[in-house]
């Protein structure tokens, strides 16, 4: 589709209220605490080079992964600075390998204790490799800072803002039930916990499936997580609690630089969406990859954060763990 036509259609759907779609409930006070009119959550899928290795639309997988990771490393300190300036918490869903300061091969094999994913192909990924960890440099964060980042995670932890650290699997695997066995999934989550042990956290509670490929939900609940994120549609609505105790959050909008939109129109898109959430008393859930275009970080993100900061009397801007804690407490009343 022509990019100009695509941009016009996107704008039309936005102004007609079709994107994001509204899900209104009369019992909205079950989801929005007094005295607020809406809740805003922002989460980030923090991946560096791990996310893009098997992207179907990319012919040179390793180079794209490295290019994305370089941008992510440059963006993250700036994102954190805007969070500090406007007191905006983010739920960081982090690929577990990034917690490591180093790793090494054993008998020529990277992470031999972890079971491997089989080859697969879906709408987004095509994995036909010989080993899921074939791109792991097995060095350290100073030698290969695009595959490890304890330094950046430490920056998040030292922030005065109440950020949250969540999980995005250890190696950005396909979590679908037909590809990812329970043994693989459990091993990946345990590896995340072990890699992040130096943070001294009690546990991780928020989870995001790589590629929005949902699976292994009962095991996720068994391992102590309280929420996950789905991406079936852009929705202004409410989280859903499943029988296993997990809360499902459906996204409202992604933070991304849109082609064919001016900077001002993109700022207005996010602020107008939050205003709509205020009027309709819904949750607004935004997410992004820290590898997004630096223009968004420098020109759009601070404007949206500044506006949010000025509306705190009506908006609870929080991380997902604290919101889920409130939901569970409110549910028991």
Mean pLDDT metric:
93
| Rg calc | 20 Å
CATH architecture annotation name: Alpha-Beta Barrel
Q: Give the end-to-end Cα distance, rounded to a whole number of Å.
A: 51 Å
Along the chain, the helix and strand elements come as HEEHEEEHEHEHEEEEEHEHEH
CATH topology: TIM Barrel
Description:
It is built from eight helices and 14 strands. It is of the alpha/beta class and 333 residues long. The strands form four sheets. Strands 2, 3, 6, 12, 13 and 14 form a six-stranded parallel β-sheet that branches. Strand 7, helix 5 and strand 8 (227-230) form a beta-alpha-beta unit. Helix 2 (61-86) runs parallel beside helix 7 (294-309).
In short:
The chain is α/β, with parallel strands linked by helices. The protein contains eight helices and 14 strands. The chain has helices spanning 3-15, 61-86, 150-158, 182-195, 217-222, 263-280, 294-309, 320-331, and strands at 21-22, 38-46, 91-94, 120-121, 126-127, 164-167, 206-208, 227-230, 235-236, 240-241, 247-250, 253-254, 283-288, 315-317.
Main attributes of the structure:
8 helices; TIM Barrel; 333 residues; 4-stranded mixed β-sheet; 6-stranded parallel β-sheet; alpha/beta; 34% helix
């Amino acid at each position: 589709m022509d990019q100009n036509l695509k941009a016009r259609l996107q704008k039309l759907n936005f102004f007609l209220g079709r994107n994001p779609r509204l899900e209104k409930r009369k019992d909205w006070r079950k989801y929005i605490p007094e005295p607020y009119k809406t809740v805003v959550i922002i989460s980030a899928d923090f991946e560096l080079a791990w996310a893009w290795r098997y992207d179907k639309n990319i012919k040179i997988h390793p180079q794209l992964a490295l290019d994305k990771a370089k941008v992510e490393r440059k963006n993250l300190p700036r994102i954190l600075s805007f969070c500090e300036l406007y007191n905006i918490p983010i739920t960081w869903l982090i690929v577990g390998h990034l917690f490591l300061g180093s790793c090494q091969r054993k008998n020529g094999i990277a992470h031999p204790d972890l079971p491997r994913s089989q080859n697969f192909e879906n709408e987004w990924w095509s994995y036909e490799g010989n080993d899921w960890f074939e791109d792991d440099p097995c060095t350290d964060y100073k030698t290969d800072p695009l595959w490890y980042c304890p330094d950046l995670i430490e920056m998040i932890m030292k922030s005065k803002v109440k950020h949250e650290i969540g999980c995005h699997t250890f190696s950005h695997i396909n979590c679908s039930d037909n590809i990812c066995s329970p043994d693989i999934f459990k091993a990946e989550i345990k590896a995340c916990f072990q890699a992040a042990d130096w943070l001294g956290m009690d546990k991780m509670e928020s989870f995001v499936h790589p590629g929005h490929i949902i699976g292994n939900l009962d095991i996720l609940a068994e391992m102590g997580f309280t929420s996950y994120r789905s991406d079936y549609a852009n929705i202004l609505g409410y989280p859903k609690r499943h029988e296993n105790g997990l809360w499902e959050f459906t996204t409202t909008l992604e933070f991304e630089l849109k082609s064919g939109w001016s900077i001002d129109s993109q700022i207005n898109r996010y602020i107008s969406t939050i205003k709509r959430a205020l009027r309709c008393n819904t949750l607004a859930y935004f997410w992004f990859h820290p590898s997004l275009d630096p223009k968004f970080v420098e020109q759009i993100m601070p404007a949206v954060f500044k506006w949010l900061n000025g509306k705190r009397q009506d908006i609870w801007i929080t991380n997902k763990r604290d919101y889920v804690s409130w939901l569970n407490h409110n549910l028991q009343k």
